[in-house]
Design brief:
407 residues; alpha+beta; 20 helices; 66% helix
Length: 407
């Protein structure tokens, strides 16, 4: 028989052996965990570097990098999807896709304006090889477009822009192109599928077809003629409502745009994707509480801190006579982006409303020096909200100092 000492030694050695095995296993797990952390960090860097390069390229006036980041086959699949697009239209679009992609992206970003846009990456986040980014585009006349991008990496760890939400037009890029292609030749089966109901009548299919063709052709009178004859349910169809807004906005038919926006507000008042569009209705109609709510919905959907949002919120609070809140938003806008012109206009008006004329003069100075505005007394005096500022000693001293400097 084995002695007690022998059994004890064997047991101890067994525990030591087991401990060593467990240590080896834990070491392997730690190594795998560390490798996963490093891999995710590398993926994050690749995604962020890629989207920043696209933004920088756009600011340099080129959409080549943007086009290179599109997976052609995947994007075509998204555009065609389950839509019953005419085969000839599909074939022609597929054949021209590579040659027209850069120009298509430029139009999607710059909206056809001649002056360059300014792109700002507001937010980037990732998990593994998936990411998202929010980019703000500054257009003419203090218009701003927001795109929310879905990102991934290809097998070579290069950026792929999968698709994006365009808050300027209230739609996903692939959906916008897909519906445009379908509207090029809207066959009866394709339109029936859009209605998403087996009970759609021939009359409803015809009316939706005619509405799509009117939107396609920018035939504003025909669109409203067709919509007038629709049932209430069909009038509220997303393609009918959104298409009417987009058509009248692109056609610059202001009176009809207002009518289309009223419909958008009626059927989709709480849709964050349409919030930016509805601002063109709420502010001119003096529906300032609704404008403020739309701004908050938009920003919550984007999930960013944004100087433009703060400046717009300042304007909304100011017309609601919440001057302290307006000034706070204007200050935050300047903290986030001191070089944003809209932020300085917001600061000027909010400070003037608070009779902070020294602060108002600072804003005037920046608007003049940095953005080239002449800001003559006569022009400013026509704005009743600036009447107190124009009559203030601070403004008089500022005008005098400018005259001295010019002399």
């Amino acid at each position: 028989m084995r002695s007690a000492a022998s059994i004890f030694v064997t047991t101890v050695l067994g525990f030591l052996s087991l401990g060593a095995a467990l240590a080896d296993t834990e070491s392997e797990v730690d190594a795998e965990r560390q490798a996963a952390i490093e891999r995710e960090a590398a993926q994050r860097e690749a995604l962020e570097t890629g989207i920043r390069a696209v933004v920088d390229s756009i600011n340099a006036g080129s959409f080549e990098r943007f086009a290179e980041a599109i997976d052609r086959d995947d994007m075509l699949d998204r555009i065609f999807g389950l839509r019953l697009i005419d085969q000839r239209v599909q074939k022609g679009f597929r054949e021209q896709f590579d040659d027209t992609l850069e120009r298509t992206l430029e139009i999607a970003v710059a909206q056809g304006q001649q002056t360059p846009v300014t792109a700002v990456l507001l937010e980037f986040a990732s998990r593994g090889d998936r990411g998202r980014a929010v980019v703000r585009y500054q257009l003419e006349n203090f218009q701003f477009a927001y795109h929310k991008y879905e990102l991934t990496l290809n097998r070579r760890d290069e950026l792929v822009i999968v698709d994006w939400l365009d808050f300027f037009w209230g739609e996903r890029f692939s959906d916008a192109v897909g519906i445009t292609l379908l509207a090029a030749s809207p066959g009866k089966p394709a339109v029936r599928k859009l209605l998403d109901t087996r009970t759609a009548t021939d009359s409803e299919i015809f009316e939706l077809s005619e509405a799509l063709k009117a939107i396609r052709d920018y035939n504003v009178p025909r669109y409203f003629e067709v919509v007038e004859s629709m049932s209430e349910k069909l009038k509220g169809h997303r393609l009918v409502v959104l298409g009417g807004v987009q058509m009248t906005k692109r056609a610059r038919a202001r009176r009809q745009l207002r009518t289309a926006l009223i419909a958008l507000d009626k059927y989709y008042p709480d849709e964050p994707l349409y919030s930016n569009l509805l601002l063109d209705y709420y502010f001119p109609s003096r529906r300032y509480d609704d404008a403020k709510a739309a701004l908050l919905r938009l920003n919550a959907e984007l999930g960013v801190e944004d100087s433009v949002h703060e400046a717009r919120m300042s304007a909304a609070e100011l017309v609601l006579e919440n001057t302290d809140a307006a000034a706070a938003h204007a200050s935050r806008a300047l903290e986030l982006e001191p070089g944003l012109e809209l932020a300085w206009w917001s600061a000027l008006r909010a400070r003037a409303a608070l009779a902070d004329y020294a602060g108002s003069v600072e804003a005037l100075d920046r608007l003049s020096a940095d953005f080239g505005h002449t800001l003559e007394r006569e022009a400013l005096a026509r704005d009743r909200s600036l009447a107190g500022l124009v009559e203030s000693p601070e403004f008089a001293a500022w005008i005098e100092s400018r005259a001295t400097d010019e002399g």
